[in-house]
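step: validate -> pass
step: tokenize input -> pass
step: predict -> running
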Amino acid sequence: MSLTVEAICAGRAALLPGDKRSAISKSPIDGPVDIGPRGVAGDEQVDRRHHGFPAMAVHLYPADHYAWLRDLFGDRPALAGPGGMGENLFVHGVDETAVCIGDRFRLGTAIIEVSQPRQPCATIERHLGRKGIVKAIVESGRCGMFFRVIEPGLAQAGDTLDPIEQGAADWTVRRAFCLVYRGGKPDRGELEELASLPRVSDRLVHDIRRKHPAT
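step: predict -> pass
step: emit ->
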């Protein structure tokens, strides 16, 4: 099913409360923009250790989750428009249960591939000005997802996100997220299966080994 990309967003670094620099606040781009191995042209990534190319070049946080966040935490100024959760792609009609690790999509003339879930961090709470959001994301699995860029190209708002190749059909983004990040004692066989997927990100494999060192 094709999905309309309502906005493609980029941001520049700014200070958040606590004097932390972050480019989590993003704004829609007018007209065509390059999508390449480093992500969306003009989008700054301050913390390259936890974000960024190549496996985390492009971020999508499902736009339908905005309503869920408002229901739980009230109207947050940062959620007034696209890019409020640090996402590059603002898309309704998709979530973590409908997309799998390794799924490939055409976006404009680019091809992008799902590589891992997004791990929420305290930057989100600083940006939105409310504690408890990370816990809610972890408990719900409404985490968002990262893509690597397989073929660079041009894209713009109004283009469609078209599925072109199935990845690991048993491994939805939400399943991967909950297994690695929710806590508890996950099944070690499942962890090893996820870590061995040919299209999973090296960052997710690193987190599996760090959080669950026996695997």
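step: describe -> Helices lie at 65-73, 122-128, 133-140, 173-181, 188-195, 202-211.
step: cleanup -> pass
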